[in-house]
Write a structure and sequence with these properties.
The complex is a heterotrimer of chains A (293), B (451) and C (302). Chain A is built from 15 helices and no strands. Chain A is mostly helical. Chain A folds into 2 domains: 90 residues, no CATH class; 141 residues, MetI-like (MetI-like fold). Chain A is globular. The two termini of chain A are 13 Å apart. Chain B is an alpha/beta fold. The radius of gyration of chain B is 23 Å and the shape is globular. Chain B folds into 2 domains: 205 residues, D-Maltodextrin-Binding Protein, domain 2 (3-Layer(aba) Sandwich); 223 residues, Periplasmic binding protein-like II (D-Maltodextrin-Binding Protein, domain 2, 3-Layer(aba) Sandwich). In chain B, the strands form 5 sheets. A 5-stranded mixed β-sheet of chain B has the order 2-1-3-14-4. Chain B has a 5-stranded mixed β-sheet with strand order 7-8-11-6-12. In chain B, strands 5-15 form a two-stranded antiparallel sheet. Chain C has 2 domains: 61 residues, no CATH class; 186 residues, MetI-like (MetI-like fold), CATH 1.10.3720. The radius of gyration of chain C is 23 Å and the shape is flat. The chains are: A mainly alpha (293), B alpha/beta (451), C mainly alpha (302). Chains in contact: A-B, A-C, B-C. At the A-C interface, helix 1, helix 5, helix 6, helix 7 and helix 8 of A face helix 1, helix 3, helix 4, helix 5 and helix 7 of C. Chain B: It is found in: Cell envelope. Chain B: InterPro entries: Bact_solute-bd_prot1, SBP, TAT_signal. Chain B: It comes from Kribbella amoyensis. Chain B: Its main location: other.
Amino acid sequence: MRRTLNPGRTVAWIVLIVLMLLTLFPFYWMLRTAFSDNTQLAGNPNSLLPVESTLGAFKRVLGLATVEEAQAQGGSGASVNFWLYLRNSLVVATVTTVCQVFFSAMAAYAFARLRWPGRDKVFAVFLAALMVPPIFTTLPNFVLIKNLGLLNSFAGIILPGAFMTPFAIFFLRQFFLGISRELEEAAMIDGAGHRKIFFGLILPMSAAPITTLAILTYINSWNDYFWPLLVGQQENVRVLTVALGVFRSQTPQGSPDWAGLMAATLIAALPMIILFLAFAKRITNSIGFSGIK
Amino acid sequence: MTLSRRSLLKAGLAGIAATAVAGCNNGAASRGTGEVIYWLWDSAQLPMYAEAAKAFHEQNPQYTVTIEQYGWNDYWSKLVTGFISGTAPDVFTSHSAKYPLFADKGQVLPIDDFVAQDGVDLGIYQQGLADRWVGADGKRYGLPKDWDTEAYFYNSAFTEAAGISTEQLNSMTWNPQDGGTFEEIVRRLTVDAKGRRGDQPGFDKETVKVHGLGFADGGGNDGQTSWSWYAASNGWKYSEGEPWGTRFFYGDPKFTETIAWWRGLITKGYMPTLAQAKSGVDVTATFGAGKYGITPNGSWMMGAYSGLGKVKTKLARLPEGPNGKRMSMMNGLADTIWAGTTRQEAAWAWVKFLGSKQAQDIVAKAGVVFPAVKECMPAATAAFKADGWDITPFLEPVAAGATFAYPASPNAADLTAIMSPAMDSVMAFETDPADLVEANDEVNQVLAAAS
Amino acid sequence: MTATTSAPPGRKRRNLGDLKVALIFLGPATLGFVVFYIWPTLRGAYLSFTQYSLLSPPEFTGLKNYERMIHDGFFWNALVVTVEYVAINIGLQTVLAVLIAMLMYRLTKSITVRAVILLPYLVANVVVALVWYWMLDFQVGIVNQALTWIGIDPVAFFGDSAWAIPTVAGINIWRHMGYTALLVFAGLQTIPPYVYEAAAVDGSTEMKTFWRITLPLLRPVLVMVTVVTIIGSFQIFDTVAVTTQGGPINATRVIYYYIYERAFTRFDFGYASAMAMVLFAILAIVSLLQLRLLRAKESDLS
């Protein structure tokens, strides 16, 4: 497609840029807040630049400030053992994503490309799980993990999401349905079994949706808060979101450490942004090679 | 252990095993019998309790304390999950609004026997505090650790600009008809966009820049930091049979006339509308932005007000009401022991230590909250003074015996669920104060059904 | 259930088909499904017939919880408020997502653009809610400051009953539109270029191509996206919990928040379970209707 700058294209670009600015402004506001002096924030609500700009908030979050300093700056005195929690988050999100996407892809294959009696009914049941309010699952799952002796272990945090989510199966099934049958049948004629078709044909053909799903799964797992809070409170398995929860609500009616909270949020999101940028480049390349556009 | 594993699993899955499982949770297996897990929610208090834990361990080398802190919202949901699954902490900080239900459900350990056995002197605490932790069943569930009352926080730059003296601020009167000198001061502190004060000609209540009085919300069922002292000094009380109310009086004329006056301040422009008040950050941050002259609040908030960089804050006494008194609610926290703990001895030793003068001295010196032990108050007063606070307005109601208790009830959550929308609806002018009779009937129905 | 693939004619075999292979492929997922979804749901269904305070054993009470629901004004209010939220949220979000996906597809392959669009989704729900809560504050929020600068009166976004639900919906649209756009984008990428080339040869205009070709070919993905987002938005909770807590008065007491309140602050878990069952039923019906109406069969390509 050749790019010419006709009026329609210009308008389209303007719309896209406006949408991107709307998307970005709150992030600017987070940055501006994170670099501000927390005690001065309330007094200068409409300053577009950081108020009395300081690195104090980042120091507080990373534990580089003493408790006294942190409290004097309107912080909580709690800090984050950043590198340890980062490692834990990486472990949890990576294992969850790999297992969940792979097992879900297997199931989706069975639902989309295999023929067996009762398939659609079983799929409907799986799909219905999408509608199960989490309020049902959290408590029994917690008790189960506890009785399995998996509290405060990576296994306990990862297990409920490791095998499938209804969404992942549904998502991949829809894409697997779209793959043309001729290719599959040609492979069959060549004597390929289901394993070969799955690994050699379906998975590579679905590289784009699978990576999309993997990214989304990774983000979700990274941002998950309540479950790891319940199951993994000990230092050695505590993930970033749980650690940052300390900043969120402090005293029953206290005014929060806004600067610290924003700094913490940015710090928690940063690894994701870096990963995403690094990863996304490779994805588009691989899509380009496989010829699916 | 192997025998019960399977049945425990089953029972646990059925979710009915809160107490049965309690005896053998995983956390318990991996730690010694002298190791106490202690929870609190206020991060500002973490350093002082860490210090207390150190002192405790030095005196009792057989015991150690691990402190865990979770924010207010996570704290309670995690605690309940802990009760159900048998992973709750041995000792935890508790609140008047929450413990009656936990006690009612058998989740908190009565400590009467321990108190009797060790001869704990309950007379060292501020008047009435220890009894706050005697439940509806007559059993004692905790030793008090701190207490709080209410006062007005005011922006001293604004009061000076308005020509209001400290004496005037500390001798305010109030009544539900014209609001007394209190309303006069609030009126004077209100400033519109053109700089005209509430008591000056041409004042435009539609374009108010600074509201005289801070407003958070309708106050729910307790009104602790919003209307409780007006209503109390108007001769109203929450319920029959206090402190364990059996029939509430939210429909009482004394209460409705108080609320009608209070909401009148919105009409006059001295207080923002409910929509504005509930639209964003809390009262304290808004006060910090220089949008309020006076905000009422609890003593535990002094740290937050100290942290407001731009605004200089001072304290004023609550007004003298129709009954001739300056009334304030007095409430406090206590440390309670989980009924399912396998470390009762160690847990009690820690609770006893936290309620002792030695631990409360540490609390006092930190200058965050008021210690429950009377003798420790001078140290706390000094600590607050060092931070620039004269805390007399908080102490006076206690000295004068003009305090009343938080309306505790095992059904507190239901009362809040009914009263919060009802009060907000009145303050939003969607219903009238007289309509609170209906909400009150609902409250009493819930109580009748529960008993 | 109509979400089926039609088996190609001529290959019909009246036996177990690929059942053996299917069992292997389904094995791990089924294990997770039964243990972490089916079992808790059955237990929840049972609890909906009990009075259960979480802290003492459940007592069987038959249909009492369901009867209570009929007379519970809060419940009905919660349903209405939730539907209002879902309508605003899904309507705007889907349109915006398709728009963004199309723009990205037609204008640029830039990774940066894609990353920017997905950025809000990288931030946890609760923090997103907090940031907006602060930006939209009536007195000190930057949005209202900006409105004042251009001569508009400040708006009580969270405090005004009429504004509260649209505001909460807006925040979630901000966070999720990039995510949804990316799903749609993934769908766009699977449409073979020759289809467009053929359309161009036929002299089809841009708009015509979109309505006649792109949208129909996107159908399987769009169905999946709307089913998933509708189910998700019926369960809106975090944003309300952080910002309005159901207020002002009852304006944002959405169904999931009300269920949560009943279960964990009022310890009325049996009643909460009954409401969750009703929510479950509603979602099942809505999704079924959706799948039927939109006929989420195979893509029109095959």
